[in-house]
Amino acid sequence: MNPGESGSYQCWVRDSFNDSSPWFKSPAVQVRMIEETLTTVEHISILFCCFLLLTLVAGVCVMASMADRRRDASYLERPRLYGPNVALNGDILEFRCEVPPFPPEDILLQVYKVGDRSNNLAEHTLLNESVAHFSMVVNYATHDGDLECMASVLNNSLIQPTVSHRHYLKIVDPVEGATLAVQSGAVELFEGKKLVLHCNVKSGTDVSYSWLLDNQPLPAIAFHHAHQELHINRTTPKHSGSYSCVATNRFNATKIYTVASPEVVITVKEYVSSPDVSYTVLKTDSQNYSALVTCKSSRGTLPITFSLYNGETPVANETVETQHAAFVVPLSHRSAVLRCQAENGDRIAYSERMALHVGECVFSIRGFGSCYLMLQARHLVPLGGPVTMRYKYSTGEDFSVTSVEIFCRAAQGTHLRFQWFHNSSLLDDTWSFRLSNQESVLLRSVDRRSAGTYHCEVSDLFDNATVIQSEKMYLEKEGIPVALRTLQPVSTLLLQPLQPKCLIIGSNSPLNRLPITVVAVVFSCFALLLISVFSCCCSGVIYSESAARTNMCTYALQLTYAITNSR
């Protein structure tokens, strides 16, 4: 029966020979069919029993096979090799090779490195025994890798030799003898070239490398470390210094071996920049003059060889330990086109051409494929005439003076030297500029430090015998007011202001003071505004009190009237 046949069952009975006889019914019986399933525990139990049965069958088969092999004199069991897995180079290690106690013949055991049967590392003959012990002095070249033990029966070629499973042995050779080699070439190279350093070790296994520059670790993010090589693709002068490599390996995380290479000094040179050419005039005697031509480069590794050319003809050259060199060239009525050349290695740099010609004074710039700066000097005129001063000033948003430009001019002279003095102290050339051959300007901000007296002194570049001093000018800063005046009376001054709104020199009125009329108008308007506000406030207070009294009287009359009516 199945679950679909569940229900109520009843038996009917009547005579078989009389079809018209009545049926007699039995009591109804309720039948319910239930489908039974195996539980999880029952499934696991069945699977476990099957596994045990399979294991038993496999064991019986193996035992039967071994029994067959024991009966077969041509079979030898596989040996088993035991020993350490890691050792130092040169250690003495003990290995053990076992063979089941069969057959009764003598057995030869040999230890080889996998793949190299030509080199017998150790051997032992078993005489009525099943275990052999080997003592070996191991080294990296011979013993590092997979080892195996091969068993063979002596004097019986019918029994085939058997080999054990592989046994891995790692030999650690302590690192020694680190040296550093420059694979890219010389230890001195110019910027932009590639630098490759290689760290060599005399011995050592599983070695890791680190790099030092001037005894400081090199960051891996800034340099390309390739195992035992260091690559710097584009060198700069900051890569100069003493390089060394540190080689490290370890044994069983208990012993660490470290060796550093000797330092190698690497020098990265700067290419010399294109030199600038300039000149000053020297007076050799009363009738003769010379030009002191200076060649100067802004950068470049020393030493630098400077050469001076007149056209294509070399005039002079000098190798110096500085970034500039000077050459004396006599001035004559013949033209000279000068050019500087600078060299410190692979590259030669040239300056612009400077043409010197004794004639009329003309300044011009013109180009022929490149820029040629033509400086033509006229007949030398010595310093002469008075030295005068003038000024102009700049104001800020609040009309206060923020800076002053003081000009110094000589009446005549072609090659002059200007020197500025503040309170009789010589100033540097940071804020002074040469406007022309005969004029210089000094820029000063207006503050307490800039207050004091100013004057300039002018002399010939080629002759310090004549020095002319200008009149003195006084710059004053007291809080906000600024006064600029000279120490001499106005009638004796040659200074003229450049702006019509500037204060008259010699006046006692400060530049930054507001007119009295403007101040009076502003304060009058402010006072009038205060009076108006005060009047409005007073009127409001008086009106508020009067209204309050009126409302109180009205309320009292209404209350009296109400009380009277109620009575």
UniProtKB/TrEMBL annotation:
Keyword Signal: yes
Alphabetical list of SUPFAM superfamilies matching this protein: Immunoglobulin
Cellular component GO terms, alphabetical: external side of plasma membrane
All residue ranges annotated as the Ig-like domain in the record: 161-267, 386-474
Transmembrane segments: 43-64, 514-534
Keywords linked to the UniProt accession: Disulfide bond, Glycoprotein, Immunoglobulin domain, Membrane, Receptor, Signal, Transmembrane, Transmembrane helix
BP-aspect Gene Ontology terms: cell surface receptor signaling pathway; immune response
Gene Ontology molecular function: any one: transmembrane signaling receptor activity
Protein name: Fc receptor-like protein 5
Organism encoding this protein: Merluccius polli
